[in-house]
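Researcher: Please translate sequence to structure tokens.
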Amino acid sequence: MRLLALLALLLTVSRIGWTQTAFNYGPELGVSVSQLPKINSYNIESRNDQVLEKTLPLVSPLLGFYGQVNLKKHLQFTGSLQYQMTGKRYHYHRDGNDLLYGGTYTSDEWENQTFQKLCLPLTIGYLFRTAKLQPSIFAGVRPNFIFGGKYYQKNELDYHQDNTRDLTSVNEFNPVDPNEAGLPAKRFRNQLIIGASTLINQNLKVLLTYNLGHSIDYAQYKNTGFESYNGKSMLNSDINISFAYALNKF
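Model: Translation complete:
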């Protein structure tokens, strides 16, 4: 509520001092990437097993609406309401040797974490009016409200010489629903935001932002000692590139 009150105050100030300020607003559309991809391969020398691990980001559309106050030529205050998803895709692949029964096997694990959230970035920035592009830099806070999520895990074990020993298991639940998660993820999170933008024309600008947050932690079961705890964690950080269209001129 305090953040909404601050945004309302900024918009009110822009209307009162119209001769010294300018107010812009409009839709925002872009793409969000949750993290950079990672690939790791190694050999388990004691067994001569080959392992390949891949972690891929979740690429999500970014939809929003913003309001911006330009104060005394160089100072900018911006508030937005944004929707996006965040998550990651993990795959573990192992080509192994069965030391007990002999032969070889293949083991695969897929783990997908997905969260849906509404974000309210509030930033203060500095506008450089030295060129037609008018670049700016900004920083601020980005409260998150996580309203949905899905955890999915699949394991496959394939024995090449004996298919009767093959195994497949699937596990999925909603990590923010207390009816499905013993320790659900917290719905309200905060991020720090830094970014830069530049004009493309009088009505359109492009923004690049990095949003840094703490981990989203949750578990399928409570740690009672009789059930598997199955605790999970995912870093709540995003890289966003978006286009903002002013319904009036910047």
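Researcher: Any highlights?
Model: The CA atoms of residues 3 and 9 lie 10 Å apart.
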